[in-house]
Amino acid sequence: MTETSASVTWLTQEAYDRLKAELDHLAGPGRTEIAKRIEAAREEGDLRENGGYHAAKEEQGKQEARIRQLNQLLESATVGERPADDGVVEQGMVVTAEVGGESMRFLLGSREVSDDSLDVYSERSPLGSAIVGLKVGDSSAYSAPSGKQVPVKILDAKPYTG
C-alpha cells in the first residue's frame, strides 16, 4: 500500500521488499544480461540494419528508466503498516462504491503495489480526493472533466491484502 504526499511514499514492508528485489535484479543481473545481448547483436555486424541491436538498446533504455523510477520511489519511501480495517477510505483500501449509479471496486493507492486485477485511483484524482476520509455509507461527489457532478456512495472499504 502506498500513500503519496508531496515527497513521501508510504509502503508496506511487503511492497517495499518486492520493489527493492526488482531494483536489485534490474540494477545487477538485469544490466549484465542486457549488456551481453547488446554485445552479441553488435558482433553481428552493420548496426544500421541490425534489428536485434536496436531492440536490445531500446529495452536497455526502458530498464534504466525503471531503475531510476524505483530508486526515486524507494528513496522517498517510509515503511508502515496496512491501514486499519475500520471502513474509513484511505490509502491502501480496496473501495467498493456506487459511482454515477454504477458499482465500482478499486484500490485507492499506487499501481506499484497492486496486481492487475484491480483498477487503481490516486488519492489526488478527482474521485480519490472526493472520497478520502469517508466511511461506509457516506456520500460525496466530484467534478468530471466535463464539469458534471458525479455522485459517489461508499459501499465498502477494506485494507488491500494483495
Overview of this structure, please?
The chain has 162 residues and is an alpha/beta fold. Helices cover 38% and strands 27% of the residues. The protein has three helices and eight strands. The chain has helices spanning 13-42, 51-75, 126-131; strands at residues 2-4, 9-12, 77-80, 93-99, 102-108, 119-121, 139-143, 149-159. Strands 6-5-4-8-7 form a five-stranded mixed sheet. It has a three-stranded mixed sheet with strand order 1-2-3. Helix 1 (13-42) packs antiparallel against helix 2. It is elongated and about 65 Å long. It starts with a strand and ends with a strand. Mean pLDDT is 85; it is low at 1-7.
- Alpha-beta classification: alpha/beta
How many helices does DSSP assign?
3
Overall pLDDT score:
85
- Cα radius of gyration in angstroms: 21 Å
What sequence of helices (H) and strands (E) makes up the elements?
A: EEHHEEEEHEE
State which percent range the strand residues make up. Answer: 25-35%
Shape: elongated
The helical percent reads: 25-40%
Low-confidence parts lasting 5 or more residues at pLDDT below 50?
1-7
Q: Biggest sheet, in brief?
A: 5 strands, mixed
Could you give the order of strands across the largest sheet?
6-5-4-8-7
Separation, N- and C-terminal Cα atoms: 9 Å
